[in-house]
Queue: 4 jobs
Job 1
Amino acid sequence: MADKITLEVFRYRPDDNSEPSFQKYMIPLQRDWVILDALNYIKDHIDGTLSYRWSCRMGICGSCGMMVNEKPVLTCAAFLENLIPGPVRIEPLENFPVVRDLVIDMRDFLEKLKRVKPWIIREQEDPAIEEYKQTPDQLADFKQYSMCINCMLCYSACPVYGLEPEFTGPAVIALAQRYNMDNRDHGNSARMDALSDESGMWQCTFIGDCSKVCPKKVDPAGAIQRYKVHGANTWWKNLLLPWAKDK
Amino acid sequence: MTNTTKSSGKSYKKEMPILWWTRRTSHIIFVMRELTSLGVAYFAIILLLLIGAISQGEESYYEFIKLMKSPILIWLSIISLLGLIFHSVTWFNLAPKAMVVKFGKYRIPGIVIMLSNYAGWIVISIIVGRFLLY
């Protein structure tokens, strides 16, 4: 087995050189290293100018997502060993503007997330009630969607988002569903407008790659399809029973 | 170091190539499924033309049937039918993702939802087939 591996890393430095390029780095091949370890090795020992995001190293902060050999992955969970013999191509997450090297601009995602009001909305708060109880079954209804870590791999995997950047996108709709399906929440109709307009769920053509790349098994594709069913039912209900009120 | 969070304003965005869908098998299958809509359109047009021919009387009906027996149109029909079967099968296989049916605490397994879709398809096909053949 070779004891070295080559990484081809995407470089973009708007200040000195506006054209992006790939830079090759030869690094020691350690069997227990993930891509993020390799990038940290480059930063510490070869080239301190390389920029990338990372934080927890354990698949929960959601900040180290990158394209590795054209697939969106969390680099803290992608082992070098599985990419032998290389070279391994590392690029910033696709479908986002690149700020520098492997760092993307995520403002679009954060704006969209805010629009669906990802928090529990109550019609009215009763100060006398100290806690709103929930059974394990009620929790199970939405728990899967609450596992989202906002890593945005699903946005990189989604060609609809690449072609139509207005699309609300997989994670945001899954997170809206997390609150819509929570029995303590009354915000379904408050989120409906943002989710069912022309940039909302109907843009999704159910390719399903968002669910395949999700490191937390959130299944955003499933969440969107379920929401389409709900949206269609609500539309009929409003048409036939206009006096009935949605949650 | 006060300006660390302020970007220079410049950023790079890669454009999606026109052949983006050739890079992954899942995307090729997706585009194929979208293209089957042409088969649906083809059958809808044939149906309208057929109704038009019937309304013109017996002679034009037989003329239309004769036209439909030309090899090119038979091949078009076969290709469209295969496309529609492909569409239906992939659609039914995805159905459990969209349909979550619960009876109280019990959630109906995805395979049951998928198979009941197939069962409905077969039953309707038999009923329609009987109308066409008798």
Job 2
Amino acid sequence: MSSRFTGPDVVAEQLRAVDYLPDNAIASTVFLADQLAKPVLVEGPAGTGKTQLAKSVAQITGARLIRLQCYEGLDESKALYEWNYRKQLLRIQASQISGEDQAWSDLEGDIFSEEFLLTRPLLEAIRADDPVVLLIDEIDRVELETEALMLEVLSEYQVSIPELGTVTAKQTPMVFLTSNNTRELSEALKRRCLFLHVGYPTIEREREIIQTRVPGISSELADQVARIVASLRDIDLRKTPSVSETLDWARTLVILGQETVSEHETLETLHVLLKYQSDIDKVRNEFLATKK
Amino acid sequence: MLDVIAAFVGELRSAGIGISVTEHVDAAQAIGVIALEDRELLRETLAATLVKSQDHRAAFDVAFDIYFSTRRALNAGGEFGDGEFDHAEADDGDDDVLGVGEGVGHRREMSTEELMRMLEDSMLHDDIALRNRVVQESVTRFAGMTPGRPVGGTYYLYRVLRSLDLETLQQRIIEQEGTARAPLGTLQQRLILDDVVRRIRGLKLAIEAEIRRRLVEDRGAEALARSVRKPLPEDIDVMHATREEIHALERSLLPLSRKLAVRLMRKRRHGRHGPLDVRATMRHSLSTGGVPIDPKYKHPRPSKPEIFIIADVSGSVASFARFTLHLVYALGSSFSKVRSFVFVDGIDEVTHHFEEALGPAEAANRVNEEASVVWVDGHSDYGHALSDFHERFSQDVTSRSTVMILGDARNNYHQSSAWVVADLQKRARHVFWLNPEPQPYWNSGDSIIAEYAMHCDSITEVRTLRQLEAFIAELA
């Protein structure tokens, strides 16, 4: 079995080196995924670094990232493989024109060979010779039936093509599936994966994230931003600010040349953090009511 | 270790978390590759392999703390240590102020006031090490734990919290933090408040964990697990939920309604086509010499039901009605129209509250404040409410409407007016009754559900979110 890491702390350390700050759960699960050769199902609210996790893991393992973006209507020919039928037609026509009197069985074997196969992300990840990280993004967007397509890949790391036989992975890729939890995934899929919930970070971790991701920010400002955002997440908003929005906000404040967050600047830049007018009004009323 | 895992898996299963054999095997494999001394690593390992939904994580954590806590105490780091708790170790820091760990004789000497002062200090400086010592001391002092009692510890927790009087403490700390850094804008004040609230919350959790740890020492993991087992959010009985449980329910309601909406939208979009379009089929058949090979269909026009919700909002079933209204409005797009009425002994339409309000929670508040639902004395009177409904609104109920009545049909021995329901059944496409009481209680005491039942298409027992979800999915 492949083992890229010797312990969770090594994972954490290496992820830190590429500016991804993992918490305990993330580091342990990545370590386990590697040890047990199992895919990881990463779930959590939007903008908390689920996709980034896969990218960072690819970076530290020096692997190529293969990404399959899921959407409604995704099918086999987009996810697994497809026969390049134009090329097949061309091949048949070419054999007719050149007058080669090829037997049908030869021709058939010829046009259903790897030369005419268009690999899509899943098959590509399986066939790769170099180390790869496969990212199946937003798996909850595909229909329940399409999920079944991926089961063989996820549990056996192989793809069965009727005309060619079974393609088995030469090396076990690390697989990450992300989900925004808009629907319940099937039991079959969940059973095959390790589960990792990536929620909003604690204040301390968020402060660190801001400091690593926003160059030139003072530690005082980072601390204040993290605390304000944590407070915002406690109140009932239509859309709670995500980590990426927090980072945008911190960058905005840095560009504006702020050393500390004052009420005035918070008011002026609130739209970076909150995406609904009703949320903005609510926060204004609750947080920034000016006493007269 | 494998035995412990097996027992642990058994406990999770009895708590309602479905764990397959494969997952159990995975967990067993996983603990083979990790260092077992690291308790947090073990926790995450088991969570990753066994628990596949964040909703179940809370139940998992409780069970984990019970099964893997033996003789492990809070250490100075604030997390659970992996060694045995050692009094000397706790004491060799700079804690001459305390003397907590120095044996029983010394402990007696510290007065309650001193303890309270320490607690305040620890909260003020967010000093976790100090806090944990205070927690241990106050559990010993105030909980009054009796060995061998088969309890889950809620009462012990209550006793400790009552003695510590956290609300006053919170107030005092906020004041002190405030004066230390004057002058303050509203924003800073708010931040300080949130910060202190977070610290207090941490303190409560620490106390709870400490009590639980001692209970495990006293009675063993399995016995305790049975006492503290809590239902998963989707299985909580709405009518008997505690305030925290209601809160948990509210939080899981939003994702639930989003999921349900997506599912219904998909159901509508897929797998249905309209009736055969003869004209189009004939025209297309021209290309195949008049043979209709490729049948054409009309565009589907799925009919969206029009919903009338008539909900009892008297004390006993109010929270249940709120959840249902919440969920139905969250699914607004799946229904052509939703009209809602609430009653106690009078009835009032509240549709506009939901249409104008920003969120369902706010709408529910406005319904509570503004709707005039009390006619005489504020005890439920289904008879009067229903005949009132008949008089004022029943002409709007058409063959496209679905009527949902929510309530326990506990009529306080008033007239039933079941003829209204019979009339509604004639006018409407469906009449459903959702009863938040368990079925065995139906028709006992002043419940007259049977009188209404004969005029309804179905009567469903809906006590938990899971049941409610299933019903709504069926409806749309």
Job 3
Amino acid sequence: MKHRTFFWFILPTLSAMILFIALPIVSVFVQSLFVAHEQVLVVSESCGPFGCTPTTSVDLEATEKLREEAPLGRFNGLGTYFNRSHLAIAEIGEAWASSDSLGAFWSQIYNLPFYNALIFTLTYTFVVTPAVLVLGLAIAVGVNNLPRALKGPSIFVSLLPFLVTPLVGSLILFWMVDGDGVIGATIQKIFNDPSLSLKASTALTWIMLIVYGIWHTLPFSFITFYAGLQTVPDDTLEAAQIDGASKWQTMIHVVVPHLMPLVSFVTLMLIMDNLRVFEPIVSFSAEAHARSLSWVIFNDLRESGNPLYASAGATSLLTIIIVIFLMMPVLVRTWRDFTRKSH
Amino acid sequence: MFLKKLTAAGAFAGLMGTAAFAADCGPEGQSIRILASDFPAIHAVAGAAEANCASGAAEFTRNHTTEARQIMNAALTPNPAEYTSVIVANSTLTQLMNDGLVRPLNDLVEKYGQNIPENLLISIDGNIMAVAFMANSQHLFSRKDLLEKAGVAEVPSTYAEMIDAAKSIRDAGIMEYPVVMNMKTGWNVGESFNLAFMAHGGEFFKPGTAEPSVNSPAGVAALETLKGLVEYAHPDHLTQASNETQGLWEAGQAALGIMWGSRGAPILDDEGSTAEITSNTVLTAAPSVEEGGVPGATLWWDGFTIASNVSDEEAEATFAALASALNKEMVMANNDDAVWLLDGFTPGAAAEGVSATAKAGAKPYPMIPQIGLMHNALGAELADFLKGDESAEQALADVEAAYITAAKEAGFLQ
């Protein structure tokens, strides 16, 4: 394709991407550089059904004037990125100086909101992604080897978890793991401990969220690999058989290399998906034990009355940077394959 | 229940018939658009306003949603605003006032507010910003049969008595986890801290400033009180909010609870529970630290406001319609739906807890512009202490640090 033709061909997609992806990210970045104006507080008397009390309120005229002069707020540079809610440079320095052991330092880091959320998010991503890749491939191979009549129904059943809306799916599971629910009560019975609660322990909550994550995303990798398996050439499989390869050897040396481009694709999607884990935390009411980066953004925007746009923007951009960082190995690999093929 | 609903509907229809021409609805042909939360008492007020004044208005719409707090600032910012009135509570009024989205009501009160008692006018520095009509607060729910069975003679009135009573119930083998409280991480656990903090005489901020002062002896004492109580609460307490605690109570799995007054009526009615539980549930004032001290509760009011960014005529018609709803007939028809602050209210069993709490001198939830940020910091940072991972001092230091970071970004601190 000529460059000129290619340009016209890609133009609609490109402009949509700029409009809906690039510009919003730039806007979020710009907003993250500013913080709100000084709120001019005045002390006044407030009265109501329960009597009068002296109280502070915002001096609207003074604040409005400041806002009109600079609608974006006060320029704060990268200040928001380095404050306690984000990278917390000063706090880490202090923790390093004041803690006498690595364990104490670690627990101080874990106490900072951004790192706390980051640790859970990364753990979730690094456990769920490989588990879903391996299990998805295993199920795809299993289904592929089923007799014809059983294939349809088993594909349908395997896809079910994907059809359930995440919020609803996790809410149902949340009720099931309750002490009075079917899973929770069974576990209590197995371990003979009536006070055992999946919701009250940090470790068990993490396991619950991770198991839910695997259950929910498994159909995606399964169906992709299943489609890929249909394209494995029979000649190569037969050749492997004639050479005396066992089923396992055929799998590792023929099928998996053939599916490698798909593995890259699924890995990319899973990393992006898992890094923005959010719904199960809300549905499981797991905030006491596990918070993710997306949950931190949600909390900044929603819970405090005044939405903290700079904070939410900074966390969003840090998340994007982490996503790019994590996807780098896969991207580099894809790029190498691409350049090798085109020569 | 069916009969009760029927008579209520009948009374309401009668009211619609009589009041429709009696009410002064202000300028005719205006558009009245109300945004409000979604619970029966609010429906009663907004519904009565609609019944009285919809016929004279060009448009009368009501949006009842639990998300009212989340959308109201955005909805009132454009000119003209999406709604002419928002029905708010103490905490949400400041959220609107911080952005200057509600107007002073002094002239409207003079014109249409003859029936509104002086103490229902929420005024800040002489400007009336809202008109309250009902009250709410947390208080103690007890099961007197279980207390008796455990040998506790009186309903607890202090935190220490409450903890002792819980211990007696557990030791008597009646229940392993007799206490329920709304401790769900986030807003609820922050509010539970506020209750104990108020009882211990704490101040959230250094007077007249936005500097935090929760990391104080009162703060530590409040956390110790909470810890003492949740010792007797179900291990899942950090996931339980009002719906869950009400459910536990109605299922007979709790003997002592600190819950919202607005849950009194649903708990005492004949739905969702057994007669044994409802007949033995008593509602009393929230516990205090010492006998006769400040109860561990925050008083709340619900009331209506009028948007800034609407025409004066729309504002007038909206105010007149809502003011017309605050009458004896509306209260009598919906007596048990709320603790009404209006004439004609006969406090029933469900209102006893809130009345007793208010009488004992509970403080209102602070109406301070930066309280939302503090509440959010408390909600996010206290879980570590309650899980037992952190000392009280460390948790409160984290709260202050998180609050200061947010307050700097919001412009309350430099």
Job 4
Amino acid sequence: MERKSKKAWLYLLPSLLFLAAFMVYPLIDVFIYSVEEGYNSASQSFFGYGLYNFSYVLHDPYFIQAVKNTMILVVITVPLSTGFALLISLGLSSIKKLRDLFQTIYFLPYVTNTLAVGLVFMLLFKQTQQSPGLVNIFLGLFGIDPVNFLEGPYWAKMFVLCFYTIWVVLPFKILILTSALASVNQDYYNAAKLDGTSKFRTFTRITLPMISPMIFYLIVTGSIGAFKAYSDAVALFTTDLNAAGMNTIVGYVYDMLYGNSGGYPSYASAAALILFVIVLTITCINLLISKKISI
Amino acid sequence: MKVELKGLTKKYPSRNKNEKKDVVAVSNFDYTIPDGALVGLLGPSGCGKSTMLNMISGLQKPTEGRIFFGDTDVTDISPENRGVGLVFQNYALYPHLTARQNILFPLQNLKGKDKLSKEAMEEKMHEAAKLVQIERYLDRKPSELSGGQQQRVAIARALVKTPKVLLLDEPLSNLDARLRLQTREEIRRIQRETKVTTVFVTHDQDEAMSISDYIVVMKEGVIQQTGKPQDVYDSPANLFVAKFLGIPPINVFDGEVKDGKIYIGNDPVLNVKNVKEGKVYVTVRPEGFIPSADGALKCGLKSLEIMGRDVSIISENPASLSESIRSIVDADIKLDPALSEVRFNIKPHKLFIFDAETEERIYFETV
């Protein structure tokens, strides 16, 4: 037994070392940074320990804006993308012809580079001297005045960011939900059919409960993913997110480290820890709800 | 409700793209199920019996032929409007609903003039639960019920709408041996009490023989024989039916009809008349052998299996198509296991002969 467990530890050693060096140590470091007040990265010195960094971050209007943006992003994109993915998966599983083609099309965003997609969205939404952007041209057909989506009002920018996020996360959700739908035993549907169950009732009383574990999985991972959003905003609004008022929490952390106003690892660490607490709370709530509802 | 099946045929397009010919699952199925009867569709896997069940339920449409419930042609009526209850092989109970909710489910679907009040639904649900004796388990989920209990819930769910026809797909296949005996009596009792016309599908001849009023033996989509179980057993129409029915299975020999005698190998075992001469298969039921010192059929004795009530004699004969011949005789007949040879006389009504080419039954008269 002894020998066996020694051997096991030996096999685990490489990955443990890597985890310790690149995960555990930085995590501890982040925690230490966050409580070191007045840390100066040039002289590597600080005044003392305390919670000032947290207080600073929580009072920073850029951080408040970033939290607000992230929250809106989570609240809008997670339910909407899951809902759309469910509708599209239902559609996909009820058609026979061209199913493979549609599956491929819906999966494309998953394998497309974020920045390339950003470029496409520029074409759709950006107003230039040559063109008001494809979406504005389309809106013009209905006599709607052009909207400056990328540099205009807050709601317009938020709309584009949400639209973009939903579009990017859809493929993975569709993939998961189509396989979840396919794994429901056909006999349940046959039984429901024989009993004259309406389509709607079959969906709400049979399909939904059967795939609910997968839906909750998507909501939990989707929320975590949305809280960590950063690259999407960069792809749309370039790196100066604070100026655009479209920063996210992760973006704020990045700016504090390396951005124009950078060089403050203590503030960055404090912001990262606040994000961690938010994500942890939301995930716990999600799990509690899912346990209550599902079988 | 009488169920009439007229010339039912079901063809599937072949999965093999190079093969243009359709796969025929059921071919020209003609049979009438009397009102209130319990009929077993019997056959090996892939004989089309499940397809038959699906066509009666309406889940599959026949390629040709018509289905009548009573005098109504239901061929083009959708499954929910036919008034059938189907018990699936895996029961298909909704796992997230309790037994009670599962049984209530079909009632809650009723709309318009059929809509029931809450009390009426409860009453019907309790009636069905009482019939299958699962009232105590109503608040359990399927995962908390044993296989037998799950099946009772499934039957209750199928019966709660008082269907015209009850269909059971391999009802006993998911149960262990002991529960199987108990459940088949249970199915029989429920069917007698409700008097609902019932069709069930099985590949287990024992199951079909024991509870059916009538059996339909199928092979490759074609009816081989229909009738009361005992009649089919006592008078199989062809070699397939003879081999398929009966445990232990019937013994098959190469034989011949010559000079008014039936031969097994070189042993003349029976004197007959009015029979066409030629090569035949001679089959004898295990209970058709009488050990006798001057018996006509000579066999090499291999072993004896003493089962208490009766004794199985395992012997061999070069004309036998299987390695050993199993005969069951009364335990009172004493046989010395050290003997190398055993001789049998054959009971004439336990011996059937079949044409060596067509495998159809050849009837004979004994002398």
